[in-house]
Amino acid sequence: MKNVKSLLSATFALFAFAAIAQDFSDPKFAVWGETVEERRQNMLTSSFLKEACDNKNYNQGSAYFKELIEKCPAATMNTYVNGTKLFKSKIARAKSVAEKEALVDSLLLCYDLRNQYFGNHSKYGSAYILDRKAREVLNYLPSDRAAIRKAFREAIEAGGDNTDPETVVAYFSNLCDDYKNTDEVVADEVIAEYDRLTPFFTQNPEGAEFKKQFDASFGLSGVASCENLEKLFSERLAAAPDDESVLSQAVALMSRAGCDSEFYFEVAEKYYVVKPQTETALFLAKAFQGKGDFAKASKYLNEAMEAEQDPAEQQKLLVRIALVNLASNNASAAAAAARQARDLNPEDGVPYFVLAQCYGISAGNCGGFAGQAAFWVAYDTMTKAVELLPEDSEYMPHARTALGQFRSRFPSNEECFFNELQEGARYTVTCGLAAGIATTVRPR
Fold it and tell me: Contact, 104 vs 141, CB < 8 A?
Protein backbone atom coordinates (compact mmCIF):
# COMPACT_ATOMS: atom_id res chain seq x y z
CA MET A 1 0.00 0.00 0.00
CA LYS A 2 2.94 2.26 0.73
CA ASN A 3 4.20 1.73 -2.83
CA VAL A 4 0.78 2.57 -4.23
CA LYS A 5 0.66 5.80 -2.26
CA SER A 6 4.14 6.65 -3.45
CA LEU A 7 3.09 6.09 -7.04
CA LEU A 8 -0.02 8.19 -6.61
CA SER A 9 2.01 10.95 -4.96
CA ALA A 10 4.48 10.86 -7.83
CA THR A 11 1.62 11.01 -10.32
CA PHE A 12 0.09 13.95 -8.46
CA ALA A 13 3.41 15.78 -8.46
CA LEU A 14 3.90 15.12 -12.17
CA PHE A 15 0.35 16.23 -12.92
CA ALA A 16 0.77 19.38 -10.82
CA PHE A 17 3.95 20.22 -12.69
CA ALA A 18 2.25 19.65 -16.06
CA ALA A 19 -0.75 21.69 -14.95
CA ILE A 20 1.39 24.79 -14.62
CA ALA A 21 1.67 24.85 -18.39
CA GLN A 22 -2.05 24.18 -18.91
CA ASP A 23 -4.68 26.88 -19.21
CA PHE A 24 -7.76 25.05 -17.91
CA SER A 25 -9.92 28.01 -18.79
CA ASP A 26 -9.55 27.02 -22.45
CA PRO A 27 -12.95 25.81 -23.81
CA LYS A 28 -11.38 22.51 -24.90
CA PHE A 29 -11.25 21.50 -21.23
CA ALA A 30 -14.95 22.22 -20.68
CA VAL A 31 -15.82 18.50 -20.69
CA TRP A 32 -13.82 18.12 -17.48
CA GLY A 33 -15.93 20.51 -15.38
CA GLU A 34 -17.42 23.98 -15.06
CA THR A 35 -14.58 25.67 -13.19
CA VAL A 36 -10.84 25.58 -13.61
CA GLU A 37 -10.44 23.87 -10.26
CA GLU A 38 -13.05 21.21 -11.10
CA ARG A 39 -11.32 20.49 -14.38
CA ARG A 40 -7.93 20.17 -12.74
CA GLN A 41 -9.30 17.87 -10.02
CA ASN A 42 -11.24 15.64 -12.43
CA MET A 43 -8.24 15.17 -14.68
CA LEU A 44 -6.25 14.20 -11.62
CA THR A 45 -8.97 11.72 -10.60
CA SER A 46 -8.82 10.20 -14.09
CA SER A 47 -5.08 9.61 -13.62
CA PHE A 48 -5.74 8.10 -10.19
CA LEU A 49 -8.31 5.70 -11.71
CA LYS A 50 -5.74 4.35 -14.17
CA GLU A 51 -3.11 4.01 -11.42
CA ALA A 52 -5.58 2.20 -9.16
CA CYS A 53 -6.44 -0.29 -11.91
CA ASP A 54 -2.78 -0.84 -12.78
CA ASN A 55 -1.99 -1.49 -9.12
CA LYS A 56 -5.09 -3.68 -8.54
CA ASN A 57 -6.46 -1.28 -5.95
CA TYR A 58 -10.00 -2.00 -7.12
CA ASN A 59 -11.98 -0.58 -4.21
CA GLN A 60 -10.28 2.79 -4.52
CA GLY A 61 -10.65 2.55 -8.30
CA SER A 62 -14.41 2.09 -7.91
CA ALA A 63 -14.60 5.34 -5.96
CA TYR A 64 -12.66 7.18 -8.66
CA PHE A 65 -14.87 5.72 -11.40
CA LYS A 66 -18.05 6.73 -9.56
CA GLU A 67 -16.72 10.25 -9.09
CA LEU A 68 -15.82 10.62 -12.77
CA ILE A 69 -19.18 9.45 -14.18
CA GLU A 70 -20.98 11.79 -11.76
CA LYS A 71 -18.86 14.87 -12.48
CA CYS A 72 -17.58 14.50 -16.07
CA PRO A 73 -19.03 11.41 -17.84
CA ALA A 74 -18.21 12.73 -21.33
CA ALA A 75 -14.64 13.82 -20.56
CA THR A 76 -12.66 10.83 -21.84
CA MET A 77 -13.29 7.36 -23.19
CA ASN A 78 -10.52 6.10 -20.90
CA THR A 79 -12.94 6.38 -17.96
CA TYR A 80 -14.92 3.48 -19.47
CA VAL A 81 -11.91 1.54 -20.74
CA ASN A 82 -10.50 1.52 -17.20
CA GLY A 83 -13.96 1.00 -15.72
CA THR A 84 -14.38 -2.15 -17.80
CA LYS A 85 -11.05 -3.53 -16.56
CA LEU A 86 -12.00 -2.58 -13.03
CA PHE A 87 -15.36 -4.35 -12.93
CA LYS A 88 -14.18 -7.49 -14.78
CA SER A 89 -11.41 -7.85 -12.22
CA LYS A 90 -13.84 -7.37 -9.35
CA ILE A 91 -16.29 -9.90 -10.86
CA ALA A 92 -13.50 -12.49 -10.92
CA ARG A 93 -12.97 -11.87 -7.19
CA ALA A 94 -16.63 -11.70 -6.12
CA LYS A 95 -17.35 -13.67 -2.95
CA SER A 96 -21.10 -14.15 -3.40
CA VAL A 97 -23.69 -14.50 -6.15
CA ALA A 98 -25.34 -11.24 -5.12
CA GLU A 99 -22.04 -9.36 -5.26
CA LYS A 100 -21.24 -10.81 -8.68
CA GLU A 101 -24.67 -9.88 -10.05
CA ALA A 102 -24.28 -6.29 -8.85
CA LEU A 103 -20.84 -6.04 -10.42
CA VAL A 104 -22.09 -7.46 -13.73
CA ASP A 105 -24.80 -4.78 -13.72
CA SER A 106 -22.08 -2.17 -13.19
CA LEU A 107 -20.00 -3.60 -16.04
CA LEU A 108 -22.92 -3.47 -18.46
CA LEU A 109 -23.78 0.07 -17.29
CA CYS A 110 -20.19 0.99 -18.10
CA TYR A 111 -20.76 -0.12 -21.70
CA ASP A 112 -24.10 1.71 -21.87
CA LEU A 113 -22.55 4.97 -20.65
CA ARG A 114 -19.62 4.59 -23.03
CA ASN A 115 -22.08 4.12 -25.90
CA GLN A 116 -24.11 7.13 -24.72
CA TYR A 117 -21.13 9.49 -24.64
CA PHE A 118 -18.75 7.97 -27.21
CA GLY A 119 -21.01 6.04 -29.56
CA ASN A 120 -20.04 8.34 -32.42
CA HIS A 121 -16.31 7.58 -32.15
CA SER A 122 -14.86 6.97 -35.62
CA LYS A 123 -13.17 3.67 -34.71
CA TYR A 124 -14.53 2.57 -31.34
CA GLY A 125 -18.12 3.77 -31.63
CA SER A 126 -21.45 2.03 -31.10
CA ALA A 127 -20.65 -0.94 -33.36
CA TYR A 128 -17.54 -1.78 -31.36
CA ILE A 129 -19.04 -1.01 -27.94
CA LEU A 130 -22.26 -2.99 -28.44
CA ASP A 131 -20.35 -5.93 -29.92
CA ARG A 132 -18.18 -6.10 -26.81
CA LYS A 133 -21.21 -5.70 -24.56
CA ALA A 134 -23.03 -8.58 -26.28
CA ARG A 135 -20.09 -10.89 -25.66
CA GLU A 136 -20.01 -9.83 -21.99
CA VAL A 137 -23.72 -10.59 -21.64
CA LEU A 138 -23.17 -14.05 -23.13
CA ASN A 139 -20.21 -14.63 -20.82
CA TYR A 140 -21.64 -13.32 -17.55
CA LEU A 141 -25.40 -13.89 -18.01
CA PRO A 142 -25.57 -17.24 -19.86
CA SER A 143 -28.98 -18.10 -18.42
CA ASP A 144 -30.63 -14.80 -19.37
CA ARG A 145 -31.51 -15.89 -22.89
CA ALA A 146 -33.65 -12.86 -23.72
CA ALA A 147 -30.84 -10.49 -22.68
CA ILE A 148 -28.36 -12.37 -24.86
CA ARG A 149 -30.60 -12.19 -27.94
CA LYS A 150 -31.34 -8.50 -27.33
CA ALA A 151 -27.66 -7.60 -26.87
CA PHE A 152 -26.56 -9.36 -30.06
CA ARG A 153 -29.40 -7.89 -32.10
CA GLU A 154 -28.36 -4.41 -30.99
CA ALA A 155 -24.72 -5.15 -31.87
CA ILE A 156 -25.65 -6.41 -35.35
CA GLU A 157 -27.93 -3.45 -35.96
CA ALA A 158 -25.14 -1.05 -34.98
CA GLY A 159 -22.51 -2.87 -37.04
CA GLY A 160 -24.58 -3.37 -40.19
CA ASP A 161 -22.59 -4.87 -43.06
CA ASN A 162 -19.38 -4.32 -41.07
CA THR A 163 -20.43 -6.53 -38.17
CA ASP A 164 -17.91 -9.19 -37.21
CA PRO A 165 -19.14 -12.47 -38.82
CA GLU A 166 -18.36 -14.22 -35.55
CA THR A 167 -20.90 -11.98 -33.83
CA VAL A 168 -23.61 -12.88 -36.37
CA VAL A 169 -22.92 -16.59 -35.89
CA ALA A 170 -22.87 -16.24 -32.09
CA TYR A 171 -26.27 -14.56 -32.17
CA PHE A 172 -27.84 -17.02 -34.59
CA SER A 173 -26.44 -20.14 -32.90
CA ASN A 174 -27.84 -18.92 -29.57
CA LEU A 175 -31.18 -18.20 -31.23
CA CYS A 176 -31.25 -21.77 -32.57
CA ASP A 177 -30.29 -23.14 -29.14
CA ASP A 178 -33.16 -21.20 -27.59
CA TYR A 179 -35.56 -22.65 -30.16
CA LYS A 180 -34.41 -26.17 -29.27
CA ASN A 181 -34.21 -25.75 -25.50
CA THR A 182 -36.81 -23.16 -24.51
CA ASP A 183 -40.28 -22.01 -25.49
CA GLU A 184 -39.08 -18.40 -25.92
CA VAL A 185 -38.36 -18.72 -29.66
CA VAL A 186 -40.68 -20.12 -32.33
CA ALA A 187 -39.82 -21.67 -35.69
CA ASP A 188 -41.00 -18.69 -37.73
CA GLU A 189 -38.58 -16.40 -35.88
CA VAL A 190 -35.59 -18.65 -36.63
CA ILE A 191 -36.55 -18.92 -40.30
CA ALA A 192 -37.11 -15.16 -40.56
CA GLU A 193 -33.71 -14.43 -38.97
CA TYR A 194 -31.97 -16.94 -41.21
CA ASP A 195 -33.53 -15.28 -44.23
CA ARG A 196 -32.67 -11.78 -42.93
CA LEU A 197 -29.04 -12.53 -42.08
CA THR A 198 -28.09 -14.72 -45.05
CA PRO A 199 -27.35 -11.70 -47.33
CA PHE A 200 -24.79 -10.52 -44.76
CA PHE A 201 -22.46 -13.34 -45.81
CA THR A 202 -22.99 -12.61 -49.49
CA GLN A 203 -21.76 -9.08 -48.83
CA ASN A 204 -18.89 -10.40 -46.67
CA PRO A 205 -17.34 -13.28 -48.65
CA GLU A 206 -14.31 -13.29 -46.34
CA GLY A 207 -16.62 -14.82 -43.71
CA ALA A 208 -17.00 -18.10 -45.65
CA GLU A 209 -16.03 -20.29 -42.70
CA PHE A 210 -18.52 -18.50 -40.46
CA LYS A 211 -21.17 -18.99 -43.16
CA LYS A 212 -20.69 -22.75 -42.81
CA GLN A 213 -21.26 -22.45 -39.06
CA PHE A 214 -24.29 -20.25 -39.68
CA ASP A 215 -25.84 -22.79 -42.06
CA ALA A 216 -24.93 -25.68 -39.75
CA SER A 217 -26.73 -24.02 -36.82
CA PHE A 218 -29.84 -23.64 -38.96
CA GLY A 219 -29.58 -27.20 -40.26
CA LEU A 220 -29.19 -28.68 -36.77
CA SER A 221 -31.79 -26.49 -35.11
CA GLY A 222 -34.69 -28.79 -35.89
CA VAL A 223 -36.56 -25.94 -37.52
CA ALA A 224 -35.02 -26.80 -40.88
CA SER A 225 -37.62 -29.41 -41.80
CA CYS A 226 -38.19 -30.18 -45.46
CA GLU A 227 -41.57 -28.46 -45.30
CA ASN A 228 -40.11 -25.27 -43.80
CA LEU A 229 -37.14 -25.27 -46.17
CA GLU A 230 -39.34 -25.74 -49.22
CA LYS A 231 -41.49 -22.81 -48.13
CA LEU A 232 -38.42 -20.63 -47.50
CA PHE A 233 -36.59 -21.40 -50.74
CA SER A 234 -39.60 -21.53 -53.04
CA GLU A 235 -40.22 -17.87 -52.15
CA ARG A 236 -36.57 -16.88 -52.52
CA LEU A 237 -36.11 -18.73 -55.82
CA ALA A 238 -39.30 -17.27 -57.20
CA ALA A 239 -37.65 -13.86 -56.75
CA ALA A 240 -34.20 -14.98 -58.00
CA PRO A 241 -34.52 -18.29 -59.88
CA ASP A 242 -30.90 -18.42 -61.08
CA ASP A 243 -29.17 -17.06 -57.97
CA GLU A 244 -26.26 -19.44 -57.40
CA SER A 245 -25.91 -18.65 -53.69
CA VAL A 246 -29.61 -19.32 -53.02
CA LEU A 247 -29.53 -22.56 -55.02
CA SER A 248 -26.40 -23.63 -53.14
CA GLN A 249 -28.02 -22.97 -49.75
CA ALA A 250 -31.17 -24.81 -50.76
CA VAL A 251 -29.28 -27.90 -51.93
CA ALA A 252 -26.99 -28.00 -48.89
CA LEU A 253 -29.73 -27.53 -46.29
CA MET A 254 -32.30 -29.79 -47.94
CA SER A 255 -29.66 -32.49 -48.42
CA ARG A 256 -28.78 -32.29 -44.73
CA ALA A 257 -32.47 -32.56 -43.85
CA GLY A 258 -32.84 -35.67 -46.04
CA CYS A 259 -35.47 -34.12 -48.31
CA ASP A 260 -36.64 -36.17 -51.28
CA SER A 261 -39.50 -34.08 -52.69
CA GLU A 262 -39.80 -33.18 -56.36
CA PHE A 263 -39.00 -29.58 -55.41
CA TYR A 264 -35.67 -30.67 -53.94
CA PHE A 265 -34.66 -32.62 -57.04
CA GLU A 266 -35.70 -29.75 -59.31
CA VAL A 267 -33.57 -27.34 -57.30
CA ALA A 268 -30.62 -29.74 -57.19
CA GLU A 269 -30.65 -30.30 -60.95
CA LYS A 270 -31.01 -26.58 -61.58
CA TYR A 271 -28.01 -25.96 -59.33
CA TYR A 272 -25.96 -28.39 -61.41
CA VAL A 273 -26.85 -26.42 -64.56
CA VAL A 274 -25.70 -23.21 -62.86
CA LYS A 275 -22.64 -24.81 -61.27
CA PRO A 276 -21.66 -28.06 -63.05
CA GLN A 277 -18.91 -29.08 -60.64
CA THR A 278 -17.87 -32.30 -58.93
CA GLU A 279 -19.33 -31.26 -55.59
CA THR A 280 -22.73 -30.65 -57.17
CA ALA A 281 -22.61 -33.94 -59.10
CA LEU A 282 -21.87 -35.79 -55.85
CA PHE A 283 -24.84 -34.10 -54.18
CA LEU A 284 -27.12 -35.18 -57.00
CA ALA A 285 -25.74 -38.69 -57.27
CA LYS A 286 -26.21 -39.36 -53.57
CA ALA A 287 -29.75 -37.95 -53.71
CA PHE A 288 -30.77 -39.98 -56.76
CA GLN A 289 -29.09 -43.08 -55.35
CA GLY A 290 -31.18 -42.70 -52.21
CA LYS A 291 -34.24 -42.40 -54.40
CA GLY A 292 -33.30 -45.56 -56.28
CA ASP A 293 -32.77 -43.73 -59.56
CA PHE A 294 -29.35 -45.21 -60.34
CA ALA A 295 -29.44 -44.18 -63.99
CA LYS A 296 -29.65 -40.47 -63.14
CA ALA A 297 -27.07 -40.84 -60.39
CA SER A 298 -24.65 -42.41 -62.90
CA LYS A 299 -25.44 -39.75 -65.49
CA TYR A 300 -24.29 -36.88 -63.32
CA LEU A 301 -21.24 -38.76 -62.06
CA ASN A 302 -20.08 -39.74 -65.53
CA GLU A 303 -20.58 -36.19 -66.85
CA ALA A 304 -18.54 -34.79 -64.00
CA MET A 305 -15.86 -37.46 -64.45
CA GLU A 306 -15.40 -36.51 -68.09
CA ALA A 307 -14.77 -32.87 -67.19
CA GLU A 308 -12.78 -33.29 -63.98
CA GLN A 309 -8.98 -32.97 -64.15
CA ASP A 310 -8.06 -32.90 -60.47
CA PRO A 311 -7.05 -36.44 -59.27
CA ALA A 312 -8.43 -35.79 -55.77
CA GLU A 313 -11.84 -34.83 -57.19
CA GLN A 314 -11.70 -37.76 -59.63
CA GLN A 315 -11.16 -40.08 -56.68
CA LYS A 316 -14.30 -38.76 -54.95
CA LEU A 317 -16.33 -39.31 -58.11
CA LEU A 318 -14.98 -42.84 -58.58
CA VAL A 319 -15.91 -43.72 -55.00
CA ARG A 320 -19.49 -42.58 -55.60
CA ILE A 321 -19.59 -44.39 -58.97
CA ALA A 322 -18.49 -47.55 -57.17
CA LEU A 323 -21.17 -47.12 -54.50
CA VAL A 324 -23.92 -46.46 -57.05
CA ASN A 325 -22.97 -49.55 -59.07
CA LEU A 326 -22.81 -51.65 -55.92
CA ALA A 327 -26.28 -50.45 -54.91
CA SER A 328 -27.60 -51.33 -58.37
CA ASN A 329 -26.08 -54.85 -58.12
CA ASN A 330 -23.47 -54.23 -60.83
CA ALA A 331 -20.57 -55.73 -58.91
CA SER A 332 -18.19 -55.83 -61.87
CA ALA A 333 -18.53 -52.08 -62.61
CA ALA A 334 -18.40 -51.28 -58.88
CA ALA A 335 -15.14 -53.22 -58.49
CA ALA A 336 -13.57 -51.50 -61.52
CA ALA A 337 -14.38 -48.02 -60.17
CA ALA A 338 -13.31 -48.97 -56.64
CA ARG A 339 -9.92 -50.17 -57.89
CA GLN A 340 -9.34 -46.88 -59.70
CA ALA A 341 -10.36 -44.94 -56.60
CA ARG A 342 -8.05 -47.06 -54.43
CA ASP A 343 -5.12 -46.47 -56.76
CA LEU A 344 -5.68 -42.70 -56.62
CA ASN A 345 -5.89 -42.70 -52.81
CA PRO A 346 -4.74 -45.91 -51.08
CA GLU A 347 -5.51 -44.37 -47.66
CA ASP A 348 -9.27 -44.05 -48.27
CA GLY A 349 -11.15 -46.96 -46.70
CA VAL A 350 -14.31 -46.70 -48.82
CA PRO A 351 -12.86 -48.26 -52.02
CA TYR A 352 -11.75 -51.29 -49.97
CA PHE A 353 -15.22 -51.43 -48.42
CA VAL A 354 -16.78 -51.63 -51.89
CA LEU A 355 -14.19 -54.06 -53.27
CA ALA A 356 -14.66 -56.45 -50.35
CA GLN A 357 -18.39 -56.64 -51.00
CA CYS A 358 -17.82 -57.13 -54.73
CA TYR A 359 -15.45 -60.03 -53.97
CA GLY A 360 -18.01 -61.50 -51.59
CA ILE A 361 -20.84 -61.22 -54.13
CA SER A 362 -18.83 -62.89 -56.91
CA ALA A 363 -17.51 -65.55 -54.51
CA GLY A 364 -21.05 -66.51 -53.66
CA ASN A 365 -21.72 -67.05 -57.37
CA CYS A 366 -18.71 -69.36 -57.87
CA GLY A 367 -19.70 -72.34 -55.76
CA GLY A 368 -17.48 -75.10 -54.43
CA PHE A 369 -14.11 -74.72 -52.76
CA ALA A 370 -12.98 -72.01 -55.21
CA GLY A 371 -15.89 -69.81 -54.14
CA GLN A 372 -15.25 -70.42 -50.45
CA ALA A 373 -11.55 -69.58 -50.87
CA ALA A 374 -12.47 -66.26 -52.51
CA PHE A 375 -13.97 -65.17 -49.18
CA TRP A 376 -10.42 -65.05 -47.80
CA VAL A 377 -9.70 -62.12 -50.12
CA ALA A 378 -13.06 -60.52 -49.30
CA TYR A 379 -12.18 -60.76 -45.60
CA ASP A 380 -8.66 -59.38 -46.12
CA THR A 381 -10.00 -56.44 -48.11
CA MET A 382 -12.73 -55.61 -45.58
CA THR A 383 -10.12 -55.77 -42.80
CA LYS A 384 -8.17 -53.10 -44.68
CA ALA A 385 -11.34 -51.02 -44.94
CA VAL A 386 -11.91 -51.23 -41.18
CA GLU A 387 -8.31 -50.13 -40.57
CA LEU A 388 -8.72 -47.04 -42.75
CA LEU A 389 -12.33 -45.97 -42.16
CA PRO A 390 -12.90 -43.32 -39.45
CA GLU A 391 -14.70 -44.68 -36.40
CA ASP A 392 -17.69 -42.43 -37.08
CA SER A 393 -17.93 -43.45 -40.75
CA GLU A 394 -21.41 -44.43 -41.90
CA TYR A 395 -19.84 -47.55 -43.45
CA MET A 396 -18.08 -48.82 -40.32
CA PRO A 397 -20.97 -50.78 -38.72
CA HIS A 398 -21.65 -52.67 -41.97
CA ALA A 399 -17.93 -53.29 -42.47
CA ARG A 400 -17.58 -54.92 -39.03
CA THR A 401 -20.66 -57.07 -39.60
CA ALA A 402 -19.35 -58.16 -43.01
CA LEU A 403 -16.11 -59.45 -41.44
CA GLY A 404 -18.05 -62.03 -39.44
CA GLN A 405 -20.18 -62.98 -42.45
CA PHE A 406 -17.11 -63.50 -44.67
CA ARG A 407 -15.33 -65.56 -42.01
CA SER A 408 -18.36 -67.82 -41.70
CA ARG A 409 -18.00 -68.65 -45.41
CA PHE A 410 -14.34 -69.80 -45.15
CA PRO A 411 -13.64 -73.47 -46.07
CA SER A 412 -13.62 -75.93 -43.17
CA ASN A 413 -10.57 -77.88 -41.97
CA GLU A 414 -11.79 -80.94 -43.85
CA GLU A 415 -12.26 -79.01 -47.10
CA CYS A 416 -8.78 -77.55 -46.84
CA PHE A 417 -7.37 -81.04 -46.12
CA PHE A 418 -9.08 -82.63 -49.15
CA ASN A 419 -7.71 -79.81 -51.32
CA GLU A 420 -4.23 -80.47 -49.91
CA LEU A 421 -3.94 -77.03 -48.30
CA GLN A 422 -2.41 -76.35 -44.89
CA GLU A 423 -3.27 -73.41 -42.68
CA GLY A 424 -0.93 -70.48 -43.36
CA ALA A 425 -0.07 -71.60 -46.88
CA ARG A 426 -0.31 -69.21 -49.83
CA TYR A 427 -3.28 -69.57 -52.15
CA THR A 428 -4.22 -67.72 -55.35
CA VAL A 429 -7.95 -67.24 -55.93
CA THR A 430 -9.17 -68.72 -59.22
CA CYS A 431 -12.77 -67.59 -59.31
CA GLY A 432 -14.83 -64.39 -59.39
CA LEU A 433 -13.70 -60.77 -59.23
CA ALA A 434 -10.87 -61.70 -56.84
CA ALA A 435 -9.36 -64.16 -59.34
CA GLY A 436 -5.56 -63.89 -59.46
CA ILE A 437 -5.22 -62.33 -55.98
CA ALA A 438 -2.95 -64.24 -53.57
CA THR A 439 -4.07 -64.80 -49.98
CA THR A 440 -3.49 -67.03 -46.94
CA VAL A 441 -5.25 -70.33 -46.14
CA ARG A 442 -7.42 -70.07 -43.02
CA PRO A 443 -9.93 -72.78 -42.10
CA ARG A 444 -13.33 -71.79 -40.76
Answer: yes
